[in-house]
Amino acid sequence: MPQHVSIQGFRGSFHEVAARQYFGPKPALLPCATFGAVVAHVVSGTAGAGLMAMENSLAGSILPNYLLLERHAVRVTGEVYLPIHQHLLALPGTTLAQVRAVHSHPMALRQCGDFLDRHPHWKLVETDDTGHSAQLLAETRSPGVAVVAGAQAAELFGLHILAPAIHDDPHNYTRFLVLERSGTVQPDPRADKASLYFCAPHAPGSLAAVLTRVAAWGLNLSKLQSGPRPGQPWQYGFHADVEFEEKEQFEALLADLEPVTEELRVLGTYRRGKMEIGNEPSLREELGGTRQSVLSVPDTLLR
After folding, report:
1. For residue 75, how far is the Cα from the chain centroid?
2. Average pLDDT of span 95-105
3. Is the predicted pLDDT of residue 298 greater than 60, yes or no?
């Protein structure tokens, strides 16, 4: 169990909830303003592990985070599926008619597009974090401002839920990856999922050749995400997540992919996360029963 875990976000954020769900109450959390800082803490050893959101079931993939996986010495060692309940929060006594601006992380705003579109006169302001947006509103007491955040942020900072469950779909999930520094990770004998990065030749049928082999060995391709290859305009690399029942299946696939790829890397093998549908837990339940420490980090580490 790591002593410190880096997360993107601050008190009241969904990263905090996901970290407690995966690691429990013991590790101290290192809050970061950017995902790059999360990875930097892991690579430097300041944090024994990091937690990084990769995709949301409504808003899609966070593409820059795939580049972080490609370019830094980290390994994927786990995943968390967290149900996301977005609410419109405001200062007590505020009414919907008084709202003039809504602040939140851009991914949170995207998850609530249908609701926000019904209020075209509201100014949408993108911020670094849902929880931090709630904290700033509680501190500044800005009139006419609301934030999109979770119930945990409302409870922490004394805000009122002006409009509950404003996300576009009730089955709203964010998938987080657990990261550790390369070279320090011990193989998990119970691993049944892997994250890969590969480049196929820039020729007709090359991607199909890869996918055919994945199917032939009986693995489930649960994610395929393309991204540009630096220095090679209009050519792409691919991130793939594959699920398997036996380690031998996965090892056979890797051997079979070598001749049809120009680059092939295993970014990590780990156990699949569980996606459970249920009611929104209370703050105390989400954070493991008690309030836990979130360490202050010098600004120089966040740049």
Report:
1. 15
2. 97
3. no
d(CA 60, CA 78): 20
Q: Rounded to an integer, what distance in angstroms lies between the CA atom of residue 151 and that of residue 105?
A: 15
pLDDT in tens, 195-209: 999 999 999 999 999
Eight-class DSSP state of 274: P
3-state secondary structure of 4: strand
- What the block records as the tokens of 212 is 């055919």
Q: Which residues neighbour 99 within 8 Å (Cβ) at sequence distance 6 or greater? A: 88, 90, 119, 122, 144, 145, 146, 162
Phi-psi region of 191 (alpha: psi -120 to 50; beta: other; left: phi over 0): beta
d(CA 299, CA 32): 9
Q: What is the pLDDT of residues 36-77, one digit of tens each?
A: 999 999 999 999 999 999 999 988 999 999 999 999 999 999
CA atoms within 13 A on the CB side of 42: 31
Backbone phi and psi for residue 101, each to the nearest 5 degrees, phi listed first: -145, 145
- Please check whether residue 267 is in contact with residue 254, taking contact to mean a CB–CB distance below 8 angstroms: no
Distance CA 223, CA 239 (A): 8
Rounded Cα distance between 143 and 47, Å, is: 38
Instruction: Provide, rounded to the nearest whole percent, the portion of the chain with pLDDT above 90.
Output: 84
Which two structure tokens, joined as six digits, stand for 33? 């303003």
Helix (H, G, I), strand (E, B) or coil at 277: coil
